[in-house]
Write a structure and sequence with these properties.
There is one protein chain. The chain is of the alpha/beta class and about 240 residues long. The chain folds into two domains: about 90 residues, Metallo-beta-lactamase, Chain A (4-Layer Sandwich); about 120 residues, no CATH class. It contains nine helices and twelve strands. A seven-stranded mixed beta sheet has the order 6-7-8-9-10-11-12, with helices on one face. Strands 1-2-3-4-5 form a five-stranded mixed beta sheet. Strand 4, helix 4 and strand 5 form a beta-alpha-beta unit. The protein is globular. The protein starts with a strand and ends in an 11-residue tail after the last strand. The relative contact order is 0.11. The protein binds zinc ion (ZN) (2 copies). One zinc ion binds next to loops.
C-alpha cells in the first residue's frame, strides 16, 4: 500500500482477498479507505486477486490501456467506466490530489509500466518486473524521496535452479527481471541518489533477504542513501517517506 497526501493506494493485486483484508486491518483500514488499485502488468503474480477483489469490494482499478479490454472481458462489460479505467504509459494523471506518471519498462508482458508518484511534497518511484534499465528509467529514480526497486535474483542461482531452460532464459533476459547486482548498480550510478530505497520482488527460489543484505553491504549504496529496506514476501514492510 502507498499512502501519499493522506490518500491510500494499492499497486497490483497478486494476493488473495483474505490477505488483502488482513493486511489492511493491520493498518486499521478497510478496502473502502483505498482510493484506487493501479496495475503494472497482467502477469499472474500481479493480477491473480483481481476477479475476487472486484466482486467483493467497491475498489476502482486503473490498468494499462492495452490490458483494459482483456480485463474488462473477465470482469464483465459493466465494469468499464464505473470501476475499471485505463491509463496510457507516458502520460501524467491527477488522482485525488496526487500526480502519477506510468512509464513503460522492458518486460515480457504487454505494456508493463513503472510508476512515479508526486503529491507536491514527496516523490515515490515504483519499478518492478523489468529486464533492463536505461538513462530514462534512472531519471525517475534520481532524487526521489523513496524508490521501490526490484532485486529479483542471483543469476548463478537461476542457472542451477530446477526451472526449465526457457524460464531461466526469460528471467535472465533483457525483458525478464533485474538481478541484485543490476538493481544495486543502477542505484550506485545515480548522480542524485534517492533518499530511501526499498528492494523487493525477491525470488523465493533464486534469492533471499540475507543474500540481498550481503550484496547491499558490499555495495556503495548504503553510503549514498539514508535507508535501504528489503521487502519481505511474507510480512508487512513499512517505510515512511
Ligand atoms: Zn512479478
Ligand atoms: Zn511480470
Amino acid at each position: 500500500m502507498l499512502t501519499l497526501g493522506g490518500k491510500h493506494f494499492l499497486i497490483d493485486c497478486g494476493i488473495s482477498y483474505r490477505r488483502l483484508t488482513e493486511g489492511l486491518a493491520l493498518e486499521g483500514l478497510g478496502t473502502e479507505d483505498i482510493e484506487a488499485v493501479l496495475i503494472t502488468h497482467t502477469h499472474t503474480d500481479h493480477v491473480s486477486g483481481l476477479p475476487v477483489w472486484f466482486r467483493q469490494t467497491g475498489l476502482r482499478f486503473i490498468v494499462p490501456e492495452m490490458a483494459l479490454r482483456r480485463i474488462a472481458v473477465c470482469m464483465g462489460g459493466a465494469a468499464l467506466g464505473s470501476r475499471l479505467f485505463s491509463f496510457v504509459p507516458g502520460e501524467d494523471y491527477a488522482l485525488d490530489g496526487i500526480t502519477f506518471h506510468p512509464f513503460p519498462v522492458e518486460h515480457d508482458a504487454p505494456e508493463t509500466v513503472g510508476f512515479s508518484f508526486d503529491d507536491g511534497t514527496a516523490r515515490f518511484t515504483y519499478m518492478t518486473d523489468l529486464g533492463a534499465v536505461d538513462e530514462w528509467h534512472m531519471g525517475f529514480c534520481s532524487g526521489a524521496d523513496l524508490v521501490f526497486l526490484e532485486a529479483n535474483h542471483e543469476p548463478e542461482l537461476v542457472e542451477v535452479s530446477y526451472y526449465p531452460q526457457a524460464l531461466k532464459r526469460r528471467i535472465l533476459g533483457p525483458r525478464g527481471h533485474l538481478s541484485n547486482e543490476q538493481a544495486l548498480s543502477l542505484l550506485g550510478s545515480l548522480k542524485r541518489p534517492p533518499r530511501k530505497v526499498l528492494l523487493g520482488h525477491l525470488s523465493e527460489v533464486n534469492n533471499s533477504p540475507g543474500r540481498v543484505r550481503e550484496r547491499v553491504e558490499a555495495s556503495g549504496v548504503p553510503g549514498m542513501v539514508s535507508e535501504v529496506h528489503i521487502a519481505s514476501q511474507r510480512k508487512v514492510t513499512r517505510v515512511t517517506i
